[in-house]
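Hey, sorry to bother you again with one of my protein questions. I've been staring at a protein lately and its backbone has me curious. I owe you a coffee for this, so here goes:
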Amino acid sequence: MTAQLPQLLADLFALNAHTAIVTGATGGLGLTMTLALAEAGANVISIEMPDDPASPNLQEQVDESGRYFERHECDVKDSTQLRSVFASIWKQADELKDSRPLPNILISCAGINRRGPAEQLTDEEIDETFAVNQKATFVCGQELAAGLLQRQLPGKIISVASVTGFISATTISAYAATKGAVLQTTRAFSSEWASKGIQVNALCPGYFWTEMTRQYQEEPQYKGFNEYVLSRCPTGRWGVPDDLRGAVIFLASRASDYMTGQSLVVDGGLLGQ
């Protein structure tokens, strides 16, 4: 039995015979998580902004892993367009089901942040933030689950939230509100679909080094915030995208089959302070 243990563990986390739909796959965190899924064996269907300049890099790296890659262009804040894309994905998946696995994993990672004092945020900034971070996440979850339920298949839905769904921070009120909503959406979806074999969980990063947060670390006016992050995290550093690789594979694989409606926090210990 001992000699077989490494293979048994590998099987537990393997994603061969799986296909993942990902939004935000070309971004800093999204790219790393998507490639982790591909390296673990999953095919990738990427929902991207039209003419995303980072798309060729994503496809090249997925191709290098030997997995199937498919791209669909869509502005996710347009829910009508987003539902149409999912209809196309399911139609094509059914046509190719004899040659590749049907989609059964969703990573909702697309997100934006509009910074500013809460009283100064415009309707446009509020609406855009809620449309991308909250409504698109909700719609993507609906569409994957509807397809799985119709075909009586199990699946995994992973929505990227944030520690700002738990704690307050200045100048990101709309962003924090949407991430709190993602946490509750995760619980609500789980309550409805867990009995059908669909696990729904949220992945909650802390403060990570990405293009979205670069100004906090490099611009002089944010020196105080950078010092706050470093002092608040017991690890004494910002997270890097690779810190999420294990977490996303866990949530997407059989290893998490009895975990649903939960929020997996990866924050260097920040919330524990």
Summary: DSSP finds nine helices and seven strands in the chain. Strands lie at 19-23, 43-48, 69-73, 103-108, 155-160, 198-205, 263-266. The radius of gyration is 18 Å. The CA atoms of residues 69 and 156 lie 19 Å apart.
